[in-house]
Write a structure and sequence with these properties.
Blueprint (H helix, E strand, L loop, with lengths): L5 E5 L6 E5 L4 E5 L2 H7 L4 E7 L3 E5 L4 E5 L4 E6 L5 E6 L5 E5 L13 E3 L12
Parallel strand pairs: 3-10
Antiparallel strand pairs: 1-2, 2-5, 3-4, 4-9, 6-7, 7-8, 8-9
Length: about 130
């Protein structure tokens, strides 16, 4: 999972690079309709880490945040549109970074599923 003690990631165009300090509190697939729309997929997949250990190493000026609700802000690259993170306005000490932007790929467990009431019926059964 990258340099010891950290997760590393970037956006599709490579303009933004970040690191996030371990440990991962939990990883999740979120099936809320906002995650579905932002990711263009069945779910948003995230690793929940301490926000104090999250650092944009390159391209901070390219990060755009969108207040998708009163409870959360979504960060993405203003050039390529890659979704990078979700932050809660109620738990500012945590940040959820997108698993798909990690380099190397995340190898830990995904142990939470959120908003199962809006999980698409077209997903395959395990």
């Amino acid at each position: 999972m990258g340099e010891a003690g950290y997760l590393h990631g970037s956006c599709l165009c490579g303009g933004i690079r970040y690191r996030a300090a371990l440990p991962v509190a939990y990883a999740s697939h979120c099936y809320c309709t906002m995650c579905q729309k932002q990711h263009g997929a069945a779910a948003g997949s995230y690793a929940n880490v301490a926000s104090a250990g999250f650092v944009i190493e390159q391209g901070a000026a390219l990060v755009t945040e969108y207040a998708s609700s009163d409870e959360g802000r979504r960060g993405f690259c203003s050039v390529c549109g890659s979704t990078l993170f979700w932050r809660s306005t109620e738990a500012e000490d945590r940040i959820a970074i997108t698993l798909g932007t990690l380099e190397p790929a995340y190898t830990g467990p995904v142990d939470h599923e959120l908003h199962l009431d809006t999980k698409p019926v077209w997903l395959p059964v395990k």
